[in-house]
Amino acid sequence: xxxxxxxxxxxxxxxxxxxxxxxxxxxxxxxxxxxxxxxxxxxxxxxxxxxxxxxxxxxxxxxxxxxxxxxxxxxxxxxxxxxxxxxxxxxxxxxxxxxxxxxxxxxxxxxxxxxxxxxxxxxxxxxxxxxxxxxxxxxxxxxxxxxxxxxxxxxxxxxxxxxxxxxxxxxxxxxxxxxxxxxxxxxxxxxxxxxxxxxxxxxxxxxxxxxxxxxxxxxxxxxxxxxxxxxxxxxxxxxxxxxxxxxxxxxxxxxxxxxxxxxxxxxxxxxxxxxxxxxxxxxxxxxxxxxxxxxxxxxxxxxxxxxxxxxxxxxxxxxxxxxxxxxxxxxxxxxxxxxxxxxxxxxxxxxxxxxxxxxxxxxxxxxxxxxxxxxxxxxxxxxxxxxxxx
Length: 390
Known about the structure:
Blueprint lengths: L6 H17 L12 H18 L10 H14 L8 H14 L2 H13 L4 E4 L15 E5 L2 E8 L10 E7 L10 E7 L5 E6 L8 E12 L3 E2 L5 H14 L3 H21 L5 H32 L18 H24 L9 H9 L9 H12 L7
Parallel strand pairs: 1-4
Antiparallel strand pairs: 2-3, 3-7, 4-5, 5-8, 6-7
Helix pairs in contact: 1-3, 3-7, 4-5, 4-6, 6-9, 7-8, 7-9, 8-9, 9-10, 9-11
């Protein structure tokens, strides 16, 4: 991988920096993070601005260095993050781009890029959690439809979503990892009930979703019937391999702010804290290098320039290296905000402080997108070649 920037890439950075400088001052104030309908309106409006300026598809089609430059510059400028567009833009959309039919790509991808439609993720269930293979939500074929009955939980952004990437069981007699199917569920279909869940951080980012004989057209099936486990692994590869990369840039910015705050309030005199911040700086620098490798290898495979050397990677889909990133990033994020609590001192009890809210939110990262134990199993089996546990 050549990390030296070309003239074209330097020109892209300059154009993007100029554009950000011109448009960011025109944005309205960001909404209350607990108000998801307002956040949807804000986030989709920002996505539309990116679309009109030609930057909306940078996560999907651009060269790896262009994608990383985009992340660096938007974070440096303090631009909005993907927010409510997270699922559609960073893992449902890429999954449909890889696994969908031409008609499905034409139907669902442009509205995601324009910010017209928002997606949520319907994988986890009350009795399954990260063990997706044990999910029970059933889909029975009836003519041209599937009739879906069951319940999902921890459904990201369901309260404001138009579509749901839904994993269902279509063959209850098949082994656990077979008999599953990936469907695109319209959230306004009769029989869909959404009940928001309030998290420790005070937001309703997640929800319970109840499905009572919901009819989903068979044309909404992505991949073959009973092949949903394989399609889901594509979704999770994008989620773990690339969906969180922008947050690493944000964490590096927070780390710099922590150092400045510590110098200002005298906490910098604590040698233990200084060593902790230094180690975190090294951790996030290493994570950024890992991102560069993962993104570059996936893009090289997609471009047909040769088979990806990323373990398990193929066809532009991030490989098992994404699990290495997810595993270490989840813990580094928690350690970052634990360090923030040390810098804040008594201020760490102020629930209204941004770093305190982010500390509470960071607790979910070792569970989201597959627990750390799941990631450890993937690394052990697919990278280290150790025997499967079961």
